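step=encode ok
step=design start
structure_in=
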């Protein structure tokens, strides 16, 4: 699988920043807290796992509204109601 950064365009037109590091048959999807968190604390996870003898490919992303991904105007009540929900964020991960 490709390593590095990829920008994904969602069906709603927004863009998500994603990054993959490491190699191996084990894939770890690293999710950050949020809204408002970001991928930063996962950046060296593949390296740290490799130091432990584990060959893991780590996939991370910034959810909508977080750091490198698109920033909707959550001050607009209609946008906040549509995107600041558990259901939306679960769908985004899928």
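sequence_out=
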């Amino acid at each position: 699988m490709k390593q590095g950064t990829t920008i994904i365009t969602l069906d709603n037109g927004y863009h998500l920043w994603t990054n993959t590091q490491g190699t191996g048959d084990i894939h770890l999807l690293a999710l950050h807290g949020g809204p408002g968190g970001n991928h930063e604390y996962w950046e060296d996870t593949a390296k740290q796992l490799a130091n432990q003898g584990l060959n893991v490919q780590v996939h991370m992303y910034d959810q909508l509204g977080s750091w490198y991904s698109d920033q909707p105007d959550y001050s607009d009540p209609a946008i906040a109601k549509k995107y600041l929900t558990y259901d939306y964020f679960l769908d985004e991960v899928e």
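step=design ok
step=annotate ok -> The mean pLDDT is 93.
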